[in-house]
Design goal:
By secondary structure, this protein is α/β, with parallel strands linked by helices. It contains eight helices and nine strands. The longest helix is centred in the N-terminal third of the chain and has 17 residues.
Length: 246
């Protein structure tokens, strides 16, 4: 009918990250790495994730021998403080803590001693150097599996030295490793190459988890912007992502 054109269009619900439920990579323990530096910043970032639809957070401070010498005790003590502040402010969000382990000379010793913070079904988040390719990644992944952990490689799209296309990534996955993509890579937040690789990994169903890797409010703004990206929208529809099982 002629007047149909003037009828008010149905308002669709805004897209958010509620289908994922859980963000499993962030830096919200104040003052112990390059993420939130104060409790106020930590609470602000947590609220940002809640506004985007998340109902659970697994925050993962860095553990790096040369920069962030965190331990499970330091991280869990910080988690207690964050939980206490959330309760004091009547903010209802489930929050746990693990760590993002840097693959350095101390990591294997941590595996040997069992001084490791994993999460959920013994998932273990680790990262590589952004500059130098690892020499022993096959052995380390095997050792993590042998110890009963389920290794997750953080932001695989950001390691620019993998030059063999998907072959390098298939090889790592065949060792027994999960992949966690930084969602904002899909909108080119870091660089064009990371964006290209992120899309390629996603299009080939190689991503197991989406993570915010949120350190500050710029990341929060980028994550909100990402909800307008067709690649993020498509990713949120994929049933193979495992975030909601955590």
């Amino acid at each position: 009918m002629l007047f149909d054109f003037f009828k008010k269009k149905e308002t669709l619900p805004a897209l958010d990250f509620s289908s994922l439920k859980t963000d499993m990579h962030s830096h919200f323990i104040p003052g112990i790495d390059d993420g939130a530096q104060t409790m106020e910043q930590s609470i602000t970032l947590i609220k940002k994730l809640m506004e985007l639809g998340y109902t659970k957070i697994i925050t993962t401070p860095h553990i790096m021998a040369d920069y962030y010498r965190n331990t499970p005790d330091i991280i869990l003590s910080g988690l207690d403080n964050v939980r206490a502040e959330l309760q004091a402010q009547s903010i209802a969000i489930e929050i746990e803590a693990a760590a993002e382990y840097y693959l350095d000379e101390t990591f294997e010793n941590k595996l040997n001693t069992g001084n490791i913070l994993s999460f959920s079904d013994n998932y273990l988040l680790f990262e590589l150097s952004f500059v130098n390719p690892p020499n022993n990644i096959e052995n380390i992944i095997k050792k993590m599996n042998d110890k009963g952990y389920k290794p997750i490689l953080a932001h695989p799209e950001r390691y620019g030295y993998f030059k063999n296309g998907l072959d390098d990534y298939y090889r790592i996955k065949e060792y027994g490793c999960y992949f966690q993509l930084n969602t904002i890579s899909l909108i080119g937040y870091y660089d064009k190459n990371s964006q290209r690789v992120a899309k390629e990994l996603l299009n080939n169903n190689m991503i197991d988890f989406l993570g915010s890797d949120m350190h500050h409010t710029k990341h929060a703004s980028a994550l909100k912007e990402a909800l307008t990206s067709k690649h993020v929208i498509e990713a949120l529809k994929e049933s193979y992502l495992l975030n909601d099982e955590l």
